[in-house]
Amino acid sequence: MTQIDNTMAERELWPALRKGFRRKCPNCGSGPMLKSYLGVRDTCPVCREDLSHHRADDGPAYLTILIVGHLMAPLLHIAFVTWRPEPLVLFTIFAVGCVTLSLYLLPRLKGMIVAFQWARHMHGFGDAT
């Protein structure tokens, strides 16, 4: 049991999350984690860390919706109350903002979720190979 506890202490969470947000390998921080927009590589090309154990599923999409909604809804209210723009102008500006922010955040949040799973030894990341 102490061997598992020692292994758990080796991987710090916050540095791994920062590396994941940058879409880099949570182990070395220099290899690219994603091979396409949202596709996670099986192994890191730099340190050969096995990343195939990830189970991100719908987590990045849920977090993206949560963050974008909580940022854009108050901004929409403030913009409407303050300037009273035409509805089509308001819709256009906020539609572009929502899509842009969503496309920016989605791969970064996926990287963070994979890095979180790696740091916490979830779904096979803790297995010694």
Observed structural traits:
transmembrane, mainly alpha, 129 residues, Zinc-finger protein, 4 helices, single chain, 59% helix, elongated, DUF983, transmembrane helix
> Which residues sit in consecutive blocks of at least 5 with pLDDT less than 50?
none
The total of helices stands at 4
Structural class: mainly alpha
For the biggest sheet, the summary is: none
- Please write the string of helix (H) and strand (E) elements: HHHH
Radius of gyration, taken over Cα atoms and rounded to an integer in Å: 19 Å
Shape: elongated
Organism: Roseovarius halotolerans
Transmembrane segments: 61-82, 88-106
InterPro entries: DUF983
Keywords: Membrane, Transmembrane, Transmembrane helix
What does this structure look like?
The structure is a single chain. The chain has one domain. By secondary structure, the chain is mainly α. It starts with a helix and ends in a 10-residue tail after the last helix. The model has no long low-confidence stretch (mean pLDDT 92). α2 crosses α4 (87-119) and α3 (59-83) runs antiparallel to α4 (87-119). The protein has helices at residues 2-10, 13-21, 59-83, 87-119. This is Zinc-finger protein. It comes from Roseovarius halotolerans.
Please sum up the structure shown.
This protein is an all-alpha fold.
Q: What's the helix and strand layout?
A:
Blueprint: H1 2-10, H2 13-21, H3 59-83, H4 87-119
Helix pairs in contact: 2-4, 3-4
